[in-house]
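User: Teach me something about this protein's shape.
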Amino acid sequence: MTIAREGYVFIAAATALALAGFALAAVLGNWLLWLAAYGFVVLALFLAFFFRDPQRWGERGENLILAPADGRVVQIAQVEEPVYLKGPARRVSIFLSLFDVHVQRSPVSGVVEYRDYRPGKRMAAWKERASLENEQASIGINAGSFRVLVRQIAGLVAQRIVTDVQRGDTLRQGERIGLIRFGSRVDAFVPPSARLRVKPGDRVYSGQTVLGELPEGAP
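Assistant: First, the predicted structure itself:
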């Protein structure tokens, strides 16, 4: 198990505070300082857990679309996607709790054709309007015979959206594309012809769970 690099500073800070707390508690003999020191130990362990970045294996294929994020599928909707797909799409919305892995991975192999960041609101990520009104970053990937859009959406407690990729980058299916800190949502916009393998309520895992597949020769 590896730790995402974005977590290093938080884990180091919590660990330093724990060590300082133990040192002061040993000198002053104050039980409140002992309690605070143990609290920072718990915090450091939680941060290491939160920023975990496990390797993922699973099905791979040119016609397969993998989950871009860990979490629970909260909605599947037929929508119009005007910014990249520029037409009808199926939107699969995945809600990430504090206990899910928060690293996002590319659902397909292809070239990044679109990248956009928009500031916005911090409403609850599971709400329908969050996909349009919350702070978000969008990544459009051309997989050759079809295109997909991944949208990272900040939630109530998300503090930063990290997007690793730039326009023109070539991605492998399952490769890391970003991270959202402390609770969020990720939407995958896929072609309407995709046969989905998931439904609302299902748990999915980035780079491992197959969201759907396109029939051979389908656009």
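Now, about its shape. The chain has a mean pLDDT of 88. The CA atoms of residues 130 and 184 lie 10 Å apart. If you'd like, I can walk through any region in more detail.
User: That's plenty for now, thanks!
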